[in-house]
Amino acid sequence: MCRHLGWLGAPVSVSSLVCDPPNGLAVQSYAPRRQKHGLLNADGWGVGFFDGTEPRRWRSPMPLWGDASFASVAPALRSHCVVAAVRSATVGMPIEATATAPFTDGHWLLSHNGVVDRATLPASGSAESACDSAVLAAALFARGVDALGEAVAAIGAGDPGGRLNILAANGSRLLATTWGDTLSLLRRPDGVVVASEPYDDDPGWQDVPDRHLVTVTEDRVTLTPLEGS
Ligand code: GLN
């Protein structure tokens, strides 16, 4: 995925996070402002959210900007915890809904912005797609997403060319890593947004330095340097 966004806070509509902001993911699908790799994100989109403790997903291999059905329904989808993404497929990766984040193990919703050499990852029979991000998600689920920082540092050490910006949420925690790409954080009175790039020009957006882990819980936000930084 080339641009992703997470929310943890009060229940809000998916539309208010993805479609309504002037530079939200809907606009980032054709005009991202800070993307380092790729020009646009037309190879699919995915929205995941927690319905109570149940993760639910809506994914498509088509561009988000053209999806009138999603735009119509998104204002009615409300959640306290959301992981959404728009995709720019890495060369050679399949373009299909199952290659599109968020991925899930039934507890976590997880998105990957970047690229990883699949040969450096443990073989997994449970990946949804042959896409590098799907194989990486399966590896992270198998390792345990709770230790995301350690996992990303270890995978990064094994694949020096890898870019490993991960975003994951389980309904009560939102975790994100920076490893090769941009990430910003906005603390709102009603919750916290973590996004590949700011969805508006609010001066409250804070850039997360590279090779850090962001941990968001109901009452705090923590930034921790990752090993190898
Ligand atoms: N490598 C992933 C894919 O092909 C993610 C790509 C990206 O972040 N641009 O989907």
UniProtKB/TrEMBL annotation:
Keywords: Glutamine amidotransferase, Hydrolase. It catalyses: gamma-L-glutamyl-hercynylcysteine S-oxide + H2O = S-(hercyn-2-yl)-L-cysteine S-oxide + L-glutamate. Residues 2-229 form the Glutamine amidotransferase type-2 domain. GO terms for molecular function: hydrolase activity, acting on carbon-nitrogen (but not peptide) bonds, in linear amides. Pfam families: GATase_4. It comes from the Bacteria. Its EC number is 3.5.1.118. GO terms for biological process: ergothioneine biosynthetic process. Pathway: Amino-acid biosynthesis; ergothioneine biosynthesis. InterPro entries: EgtC, EgtC-like, EgtC_Actinobacteria, Gamma-glu_amide_hydrolase, GATase_2_dom, Ntn_hydrolases_N. NCBIfam families: ergothioneine biosynthesis protein EgtC. Catalyzes the hydrolysis of the gamma-glutamyl amide bond of hercynyl-gamma-L-glutamyl-L-cysteine sulfoxide to produce hercynylcysteine sulfoxide, a step in the biosynthesis pathway of ergothioneine. This is Gamma-glutamyl-hercynylcysteine sulfoxide hydrolase. It comes from Mycobacterium talmoniae. The lineage of its organism: Bacteria, Bacillati, Actinomycetota, Actinomycetes, Mycobacteriales.
